[in-house]
Amino acid sequence: VGKEPWWKEALFYQVYPASFKDSNGDGWGDIPGLVSEIDYLHQLGVDVVWLSPMFESPQKDMGYDISDYQKVYPRYGTLEDVDSLIDACHSRGMKLILDLVVNHTSVEHEWFKESRSSKSNPKRDWYIWKPARYDRSGNRIPPTNWRSYFAGPTWTWDEQTQEYYLHLYDTSQPDLNWENPECREAIYDNAMRFWLDRGVDGFRIDTVNKYSKRTDFPDAPITVPNSAHQPAPEMWCNGPRIHEFIHEMNTKVLQPYGAVSVGELSNTPLPSQVIPYVSAAAKELDMVFEFSMIRLGTGGPFDGKYLYRPFLLSELKRHVSTWQTFIESTDAWHTVFCENHDNGRAVSRFGDTSTPELWLASAKTIALWQVTLTGTLFLYQGQEIGMTNMPAAWGIEEYKDVESKGFYGEAVQSGDEKRIKATIAGLRILARDHARLPFPWDDSVPNAGFSERGSEEPWMRVHEGYRELNAKRQLADENSVLSYYKRVLRLRKEYSDLFVHGAFRLLLPEDEALFAYVKESGRDVRRKTLVIMNFSKEEQECCLDVAEVLSCKKEEVRLLVDSGTAVKGGDCVEPAGTSSKQSLGPWQGKVYVNF
Ligand code: TEU
């Protein structure tokens, strides 16, 4: 096998700038705050920082609504601060990638101001404008019945030029028209080359499969009765020209700069649809985030994403297995992640926060799960210290996100008490807000070190649990979640042929408590590892014969890590003549290797 690209082994860490560290006390995280904590990330083993949008923006969607790609939102800092961040990363051998949000801009972007000024403006066609339709009673209605990701229609009427404009997201986020080549070139130059010339190393590409819409704009089939707007991802996901556009972006920008790219690929549940984006031959993207695993339990972003439904461990395991095995059959690659700024916290969604002991054990086993999977590993800020969702006792006013408000507002408008209660219950598990609470650096009152005492109120409420759950305390505790992440991340690098690259074989597929799989080395087919995790709070008997699974003699089996034992110093690497029967305590995980 030729030399593997650097980004396969690299550890990526997503920073949500508003919630990471507020250095000037205005209640809003900022880039100097991130620079001041870069060694915390370096010591965790982070190779690449992915910084969520810090560009000029009215902040309707927390910066995913950009009004100037070449300016920094003042509360985050200045262009010089970004230069300092780039230097801070590069001087430590780390890299920085930015968030490329070019499916849409903010309504406040100059391009849109021109486009909406008149039908004859040269930039009119840089956005998607359509005349109104009229129903039988002569009422004006939108060009299609499509439903937005944030509830409501995907069209807003513009009085000045008497047409609708398209927005898949908020009304303040008009979609750019990728059919227009001038518009595409402006995106490549204004939003990409500008930053690559400043030394940025690549991009996380927002909504990467949505730039090519159906250009005949038909109505979506009725799947939600009595609803004016219908789910229609097939009208804009993986559209007719999407691979042409992404390939053009690759050949014109990504490849010439050697920029690393990771695409956000939602609504694309089949490997056969994903491969064209990431196969090496395609020359489109290096890798993608695929969301089917992380979407489990959500009603989907259309029929009220927040109508939560419990799911089985076997469902989770099937999704993981699908995506772990699809890359073996192709020259494709992909990512490993279980958190980001758009989803509830993993330990609250997949672990158990009902007691401190179960929180600690399940956060560690989620770490073990993630570091032993094949693909490029992404951590989201706070995942490494086991941050949890906001307390269930907090009121609806703490949910500030445009998506949460969209779905909750729609439920309230429906007047349907059952739906309102179901939406609140779903928000408590799935809302994007849970990932956006201020990062707890220490136990200082009142802002947990996110900002100094006497600072403005942080824009999101600090989780009261910060007295116990904070980075400073965990840095000093060798049995903390953070210390455990550091240890298992080291193992991931040390055994990268098994954990980063290995071939995945799911065991016990129907077991609803044990999550077990074998990874086989591509370097030496005899070399194998067995990962067994108890994803439940009850003790479980595991009947797997470890030596047999690892095709080796009993005395050759080595226990590499056991999340259930308190660490006495180094890694518990001792020979384990493991019997075929063993029990696993609540949320205990073990990893064995045969050499
Ligand atoms: O999200 C893309 C997307 O499809 C969202 O609908 C996402 O899947 C959903 O919100 C999950 O609940 C990206 C960004 O990650 C998100 O923060 C932005 O709001 C969105 O694009 C618009 O830029």
UniProtKB/TrEMBL annotation:
Keyword Oxidoreductase attached: no
Catalytic activity: Hydrolysis of terminal, non-reducing (1->4)-linked alpha-D-glucose residues with release of alpha-D-glucose
Keywords associated with the record: Glycosidase, Hydrolase, Maltose metabolism
E.C. designation(s): 3.2.1.20
The keyword Hydrolase belongs to this UniProt entry's keyword annotation: yes
UniProt-listed InterPro entries: GH (IPR017853), GH13_cat_dom (IPR006047), Glyco_hydro_b (IPR013780), O16G_dom_2 (IPR045857)
GO MF term (any one): glucan 1,4-alpha-maltotriohydrolase activity
Coiled-coil regions listed in the entry: none
GO BP: any one term: maltose catabolic process
Annotated Glycosyl hydrolase family 13 catalytic domain residues: 14-436
Family membership: Belongs to the glycosyl hydrolase 13 family.
UniProt cross-references to PANTHER family, sorted A to Z: ALPHA-AMYLASE FAMILY MEMBER (PTHR10357), MALTASE MALT (AFU_ORTHOLOGUE AFUA_8G07070) (PTHR10357:SF222)
The name this protein goes by in its record: Alpha-glucosidase
